[in-house]
Amino acid sequence: MTSWKPGIRLKLFIAFILAVTVPLSALFGSFIFLMNQEKMASPDDIRSPLYAEKIAEEVIKEYHQEGSLLGALTKLEALEMPAGSGVEVLDSEGVVLYDSRGLRQGVTVRAYEIAQMFISEQENFSLEEQMNYHVVPLNIEGEEQGLLIISYPATLILDPLFRNLVSTAFIAIITALALFLLLATFLSRWLIRPLQEMVSATEKIAHGDYESPVNIQSKDELGRVALAFNEMTRKLAQSRKREQELEQSRRDLVANVSHDLRTPLASIRGYVEGLLDGLASDQEKRDRYLQVIYEKALTLERLIQDLFELSRLEQGILRMEKVEVPASEMLKELAEKYAHDAELAGISFLAEIPEHLPMIEVDPGRIEQVLTNLFQNAIRHSGPRKGFVTLRAEYKERFIFLSLADNGEGITRSELPYLFDRFYSGEKSRSRQKGGTGLGLAIAKEIVEAHGGTIKAESELGQGATFTFTIPVK
């Protein structure tokens, strides 16, 4: 079971969430922290209820020294208060004994008016016009002698907010910059660097270097792209190698075809010149010259025909006329023909064909061509004394295995991988000197593969050779 790995989309989403939430969290966190640092609970801050209680205690203390409430109010004249703020003292009857703003001194204030201070009846509320109040009773010797009222503009509440905005914004900006630097570093290592590696590898491929894979270990989309890129590079390298091999094969083909065409043509030309120059003085010699010319012309015809057929097979132009035939019957008919040819060549021939092989869907003419090519190859390379060729057929694993074995000079192990290449030089030295064109095995390979089978050769030098190919059973 494979472990789950986050993909690029999820990582980018997380990075986006962090880029948004962390600066905002820093903004609100620093604002709350700074606001909590404000001394709004201090007795020296007019916005705190403790401030009013402190003033009330000073008035009561002064009352004990002066003996009257009026005498105690002189202490209030020394108070320094923010603009728009005020302090009032009312006696037990509601008469304003002191008003720092001088607006209601001597006026009687009823209880509901005092309550109305804390309720705004304005339809269009304006913070600039709103006042906040602290009311503290003046309890002297267990009796309420009056009230102390502290009033201040509601806008004073906003002072710490405005004061802390700059600090809060600075902290948020620094946090955001630090986060963006971290994210940029992370994205550079996780996203940009792998892309740069792939760009670098692509440039190397453009210059013909296919041996520099991208080293990306992540399991996300970039990792999968790197794996696909490396696989593509590997296939490009294989394709390039194959292309070079094909180019070399083309050059070899041109060279070998030129040689194989030039040799019989040179012989034909030489014998024709001999005839024209009158070197063949008698009829017997002329007939011998003409026979050689005829045989060389047949060699040229076979070579050209083989080249033409191989080219059509490789391009898939040559159609296979496949029909369903009984394998045992078809092979026995071919075996009778090969037995006669082997007898004429002075070679022993043995056929081991089971009676009840399955039906196969093949082009009988093409399968005969494969077997004939292999048979003629075996005849040419069978042993000089007591030579023999064996044809075997066997059915297993939904394939019919057909093999032709000889007791000839054999093939070196180094030559085996190249036997089915066109005009392989090893085949040239062994086959064409004995009448072959060097294309029979290449044609056999193309025909077998067109039927969905495979072909191979097994041999030891001096121990003969065995060629085996398969035909799939329908």
TrEMBL record:
<keyword id="KW-1003">Cell membrane</keyword>
<keyword id="KW-0418">Kinase</keyword>
<dbReference type="GO" id="GO:0000155">
    <property type="term" value="F:phosphorelay sensor kinase activity"/>
</dbReference>
<dbReference type="Pfam" id="PF00512">
    <property type="entry name" value="HisKA"/>
</dbReference>
<dbReference type="InterPro" id="IPR003660">
    <property type="entry name" value="HAMP_dom"/>
</dbReference>
<keyword id="KW-0597">Phosphoprotein</keyword>
<keyword id="KW-0175">Coiled coil</keyword>
<feature type="coiled-coil region">
    <location>
        <begin position="229"/>
        <end position="256"/>
    </location>
</feature>
<feature type="domain" description="Histidine kinase">
    <location>
        <begin position="256"/>
        <end position="474"/>
    </location>
</feature>
<keyword id="KW-0808">Transferase</keyword>
<dbReference type="InterPro" id="IPR005467">
    <property type="entry name" value="His_kinase_dom"/>
</dbReference>
<keyword id="KW-0902">Two-component regulatory system</keyword>
<keyword id="KW-0067">ATP-binding</keyword>
<keyword id="KW-0812">Transmembrane</keyword>
<feature type="transmembrane region" description="Helical">
    <location>
        <begin position="12"/>
        <end position="35"/>
    </location>
</feature>
<dbReference type="InterPro" id="IPR050398">
    <property type="entry name" value="HssS/ArlS-like"/>
</dbReference>
<dbReference type="Pfam" id="PF00672">
    <property type="entry name" value="HAMP"/>
</dbReference>
<dbReference type="InterPro" id="IPR036890">
    <property type="entry name" value="HATPase_C_sf"/>
</dbReference>
<dbReference type="GO" id="GO:0005524">
    <property type="term" value="F:ATP binding"/>
</dbReference>
<keyword id="KW-1133">Transmembrane helix</keyword>
<feature type="domain" description="HAMP">
    <location>
        <begin position="189"/>
        <end position="241"/>
    </location>
</feature>
<dbReference type="InterPro" id="IPR003661">
    <property type="entry name" value="HisK_dim/P_dom"/>
</dbReference>
<protein>
    <recommendedName>
        <fullName>histidine kinase</fullName>
        <ecNumber>2.7.13.3</ecNumber>
    </recommendedName>
</protein>
<feature type="transmembrane region" description="Helical">
    <location>
        <begin position="165"/>
        <end position="188"/>
    </location>
</feature>
<keyword id="KW-0472">Membrane</keyword>
<dbReference type="Pfam" id="PF02518">
    <property type="entry name" value="HATPase_c"/>
</dbReference>
<keyword id="KW-0547">Nucleotide-binding</keyword>
<dbReference type="GO" id="GO:0005886">
    <property type="term" value="C:plasma membrane"/>
</dbReference>
<dbReference type="InterPro" id="IPR036097">
    <property type="entry name" value="HisK_dim/P_sf"/>
</dbReference>
<dbReference type="InterPro" id="IPR004358">
    <property type="entry name" value="Sig_transdc_His_kin-like_C"/>
</dbReference>
<dbReference type="InterPro" id="IPR003594">
    <property type="entry name" value="HATPase_dom"/>
</dbReference>
